[in-house]
Amino acid sequence: MKDEIAIREAVTKADVALFWEQLHAYHRRDIFPDPEDNEAAYFLDDTQYRAQVQSVHDRPQDRGFYLFFHRAGQDIGFALPVIFTSEDGKCFIMEFCVFPAFRGGGTGTECAGALLDWAKRNGAQYAELNCGSHPRRRRFWERVGFVANGADEWGEPLMILPPTEHVPYTVEALTDAEDWQLKKLENGYLQEIGESPLTKEKQERLAAAVRDGRITFFLARRGYRAVGMCSVVKCFSTFACTDTGIFEDFYVEPAFRKQGIARKLARAAQAWSREQGLASLTVCSAPCDEKMYQSLGFETPLGAVFADINAPA
């Protein structure tokens, strides 16, 4: 069709220079219109953001792409996606822009559709992006089919176009205290309960607690991607005169709920508690969640907001 939107990659030196010229203009115009915004300096400094993005673009695997949206003989916008083919086929959309002169009339939606079709042809199974705190941006991606889905390792809100392919979920104990996906899940959990994301200091304290064995995390994975977590903290009970466990950090990313992941996480934590010889595993529960925890095996009520499972069984 004459007005069909095509994708063309910036390959030549001139095209790459044009891509970065347009990206900087987009950042100044649409993302950081306030010249006093301190964040702008990082994104507009070629020795920082550009250098980081260029290293992703140049790497041999899981690389980024400088793309233009092209229609009727002219460029009308650009995108910067990264496809993680070695992981789980995630296409992370780092940047997306329709030039102001071409906005309106559904052009943005058409460009998004063209980008997603291109990503699928290049090995992507689903797509994800940071939506920031801009309501208009969130509404745009919702129209495309994206849904809110937690936060990233820096606490920025995420949206996802959920995968449709069936991949079995597995649960395993966390072995890497610095795993970035743990930080991502923790920030999603904190966002959901109305708390601030992890600071750098809190991330370091959390990693130290994992390394020291003071807390054990279990991650639910869809292939490579961690989509849920829970944890068990050991503590000494003077009543039992032995170690008991506290079950917490229970979180599944919204897009992956109602697929049996919560039950897999709870069972893994309960089995581990039995293997460790813990006298009990206790969870603090709001009244509205009591039935859910009882269905997950926490069977003995201990007052209004607690439930307990006898770990040794």
UniProtKB/TrEMBL annotation:
Keywords: Acyltransferase, Transferase
GO MF annotations, alphabetized: acyltransferase activity, transferring groups other than amino-acyl groups
Key word Transferase present: yes
Domain (N-acetyltransferase) ranges: 5-164, 169-313
Leader sequence residues: none
CDD domains per the UniProt record, alphabetical: NAT_SF
Keyword Transcription regulation found: no
Cited PROSITE patterns: GNAT
Pfam families: Acetyltransf_1
Annotated protein name in UniProt: GNAT family N-acetyltransferase
